[in-house]
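User: For documentation purposes, I need each entry recorded in a consistent format: the amino acid sequence on its own, followed directly by the corresponding structure tokens. There are two entries in this batch. Please keep commentary to a minimum and don't merge the entries.

Assistant: Recorded as requested. Entry 1:
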Amino acid sequence: MSVNKKDILVIYSFKAGFHALSMIPDSLVAPISSIGAKFAKNITPVRYKVALTHMRRLMPEISEDKLPKYVEESFRSYIRYWIESSQAFRWPFSKLDASVACPNLDQFNETFKKYSNVIVVMPHMGNWDVGATWFVKRGYTMTTVAEKLEPPQLFDFFVKIRENNGLKVIGLDKDAAAKLVKEIKSKRIVGLLSDRDIQKNGIEVVFFGEKTTLPMGPAVLSLRTGIPIVIATVYSSYTQNNSRFTVDLSPAIEFEPSKNFRSDIKNLTQLIADNLEKAIKVAPTEWHVFQPNWPIDEVKTSDNIN
């Protein structure tokens, strides 16, 4: 496969940037994140406007003049995500395990034992990469799906990093669902980030009081295999030089299928949306979605770009 000069520049820029982030000492993570967040409005104005719109939905009780403070905090959290994700893959297990708490792991293990597997559904919260890395290094086998990046070599770069830590990655394409069914049947846990409808072919739900679409994949996989869904959310807390991560694992979502498969997909996807909303509300500034996530925002953002 031929690679043009522009693609080569993109690939090496990302690799160099990822390596540079991984070398940042713990004492500088907080100040670098804070400085970057303060300039987010100037560096990426469209994403800033999207984040501001999201925050209005997530925190309707906050007055308009105070919202920018929370948007800045969300960018600060997102910058920390990138820095710590680049570093966590290299952490010895002792450091990783000391940084992560999972208060409801026993409950999760009981669910796994009862059904022989679990489908883990996650929002883009806190540092899901740290949570997943901790999970597989604890001895669980996990497969996830990732949006394919361009150029393909960039996608391969990020896949290799995750697979070196035991996380199997499947590219998001038309064959992904069939591959995931096989993974579930082989007793590998499937982890899916499901608060964005990347392919724009999802199920309509009400999410934070407005209609949008979310991926149907988790519901379809659960209904086809009989394996229950658990919501996993990673929350972060920071001291001056350290981060702590809490992996919150919900009880299995209770759902009784009917004889109408199409209706079941819609109803279960709405239940997933309700549970994701509940998880995000715990720490709204840690929700790392800076792309339009509701149809009305697509129009507004398009107008701003034009």
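Entry 2:
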Amino acid sequence: MVRYREYKRGACERNKDLFITAFKTTIPVLLGYIPLGMAFGFLLDGAGYHWIYAFIMSLFVYAGSGQFLAVALLSAGAGLTEFAIATLLLNFRHAFYGLSLLEKFSGVGKVKPYLIFALTDETYALLTTTNVPQGISKSRFYFYIAALDHLYWIAGSVLGAALGSVLDLNLEGMSFVLAALFVVLTIEQYFSSEARFPFIAAIGAGALSLILFSPDNMLLASIVLGTLILIVREKSMQRTQREQKIQETRKTQEMKEKYKGNGEKPENEENIGIFQVKKEIRSINTSIQPVEDKIKEEN
């Protein structure tokens, strides 16, 4: 009984430490989601909706930019078809997020459906750049990050809608908070990652899409173009690795044939290096032998 209590106490302490670690990880999102959620709440209140709708939408929709779009469509009196098409086009990038998280989400258990639901741009940035602490449950760590981000968004949107109902505010430029937050997370991810090519590809794809397409359509186009660039690079790297492997195999075969001609046959490829060293030693001994004979004659 005593051991069980000690074990339970230790588990609670580890869980508390894990939660604190996740909270520290999500602080950048907290600093962005509260004002961003408040901006959404202000806009929703300005469109004539009660603060409870901000809570319901943030709890069950949780789409960030999709919720800003929903406010604009609601104000314009758009129908269900317009909502569906616009939301699909806006959030289609999440399909690429999901493909890149297949390995990370493997083995997370029952929390996987919620992790998929709560996958926003900012949560994706945290999950792909944060390493799970050693000896800690991956599923629980990911769940804490996603749930905390979700909580920040709900709190910000409800607070904004509630304040908007009692304050007279100028909402001009407030929606830019989303873009500013994502820029900050991208910069943080750039400095924490050793790979630089994906960022270069993203900048190039974005610039090219902005030239070729209208600003309203460039986001999806840049995602598709950037993905194609990364696929082509990955294929090129795989081809290079195959060619290097073929060259190494040929070199190994040539060395085997060479040793076979000298009457020596290595047991496996790992012993080839040993045979090569032996051959060099014999070569050195052969070159030294005449010198030793001459010394013996003089003595």
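Summary note for entry 2:
The radius of gyration is 31 Å.
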